[in-house]
């Protein structure tokens, strides 16, 4: 690491409470790997237990239904981590993780990760907070799968908007999410997403631009989802 430059691990969500000396100590227990776009990083039911910390690139977490349909849970970007569940309980992987772009990740064995939790309470607290958020997100998705398809699509758009707000009531999704990607996240088909997007565009709620999707009125999108629910 060059003098004066931030330590690469400082960008990782679980390590942001650590100083440079602590990060350098952790680095001794890691190794770095590069993945090409489309390459599988971990497979569902794989019996490996390493924890991964993303330095660059984008990955997606996904499983396949019994019918072979891909169901995408979430995307992961630089600074995020995955693999903690298998490291903690020793069970096989609960999902596939696939590189959407070229990516660089740092790996730590399960035993070294558990030792780091014991040595650094800040990491342990960060892991607890992260797992709590994941449980809440899973509960939200389970509840949504009882809803009609259009409601699920609206809720997925609202989730994407949270991280891309422009002020208090608009969001810009760049690049624009592909209809097939939205469909895989809510377990439907691309045509259902296309139909709803056309309805939202006619109402002025969303607008497609050059390589982007602008949600012009987030509150109106939420109200539309509630209206669909009440008429379901």
Automatic annotation (TrEMBL):
Q: Looking at the Swiss-Prot or TrEMBL record, what is one Pfam family this protein matches?
A: cNMP_binding
Entry-linked PROSITE patterns: CNMP_BINDING_3, HTH_CRP_2
**SMART domains noted in UniProt:** cNMP (SM00100), HTH_CRP (SM00419)
Q: Which residues form the HTH crp-type domain?
A: 147-219
Entries under CDD domains matching the protein: CAP_ED
Query: What InterPro entries does this protein map onto?
Result: cNMP-bd_dom (IPR000595), cNMP-bd_dom_sf (IPR018490), Env_Response_Regulators (IPR050397), HTH_CRP (IPR012318), RmlC-like_jellyroll (IPR014710), WH-like_DNA-bd_sf (IPR036388), WH_DNA-bd_sf (IPR036390)
Q: Which domain of life is it from?
A: Bacteria
* Keywords from the UniProt entry: DNA-binding, Transcription, Transcription regulation
Where the record annotates domain Cyclic nucleotide-binding, the positions are 14-123
What is the protein name for this chain? Crp/Fnr family transcriptional regulator
* Lineage of origin: Bacteria, Pseudomonadati, Pseudomonadota, Alphaproteobacteria, Geminicoccales
């Amino acid at each position: 690491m060059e003098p004066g430059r931030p330590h690469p691990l400082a960008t990782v969500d679980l390590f942001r409470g650590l100083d440079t000396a602590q990060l350098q100590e952790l680095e001794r227990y890691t190794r770095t790997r590069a993945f090409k776009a489309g390459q599988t990083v971990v497979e569902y039911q794989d019996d490996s237990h390493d924890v991964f910390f993303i330095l660059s690139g984008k990955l997606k977490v996904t499983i396949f239904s019994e019918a072979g349909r891909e169901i995408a849970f979430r995307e992961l970007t630089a600074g995020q981590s995955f693999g903690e569940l298998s490291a903690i309980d020793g069970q096989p992987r609960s999902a596939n993780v696939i590189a959407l772009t070229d990516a660089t990740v740092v790996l730590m064995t399960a035993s070294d990760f558990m030792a780091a939790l014991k040595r650094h309470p800040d990491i342990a607290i960060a892991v607890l907070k992260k797992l709590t958020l994941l449980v809440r997100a899973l509960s939200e998705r389970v509840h949504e799968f009882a809803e009609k398809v259009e409601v699920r699509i609206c809720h997925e758009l609202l989730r994407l908007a949270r991280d891309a707000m422009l002020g208090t009531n608009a969001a810009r999704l760049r690049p624009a999410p592909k209809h097939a990607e939205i469909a895989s996240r809510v377990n439907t088909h691309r045509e259902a997403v296309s139909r709803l997007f056309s309805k939202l565009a006619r109402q002025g709620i969303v607008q497609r631009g050059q390589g982007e999707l602008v949600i012009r009125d987030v509150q109106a999108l939420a109200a539309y989802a509630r209206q669909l629910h009440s008429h379901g």
